[in-house]
Description:
- By secondary structure, this protein is α+β, with helices and mostly antiparallel strands.
- It has one domain.
- It has 3 helices and 4 strands, in the order βββααβα.
- Strands 1, 2, 3 and 4 form a 4-stranded antiparallel sheet that branches.
- β1 (3-9) and β2 form a beta hairpin.
Amino acid sequence: MALFKIEIEDDRGIWSDVRGPDGRVLTFDNEEAARRRLAELYPVQVKMEKYGGGKRTRVVRIFRTDKEWKDGTPPE
Length: 76
């Protein structure tokens, strides 16, 4: 099972995970759900990217480690 997360770039070019109110990284079971949430949380940045405003947001696929794959546990 693939998981996806959202990242946003700050003014210094540093990418950071988007976290929920509990401080945990937001993860999604599919890319479509991640993109919908990204557009809800950062509507201006997402729309600016369509008009050449530069890439400031992204959806990233999370890969498991060998241990997680063997144990069948999802990454945190």
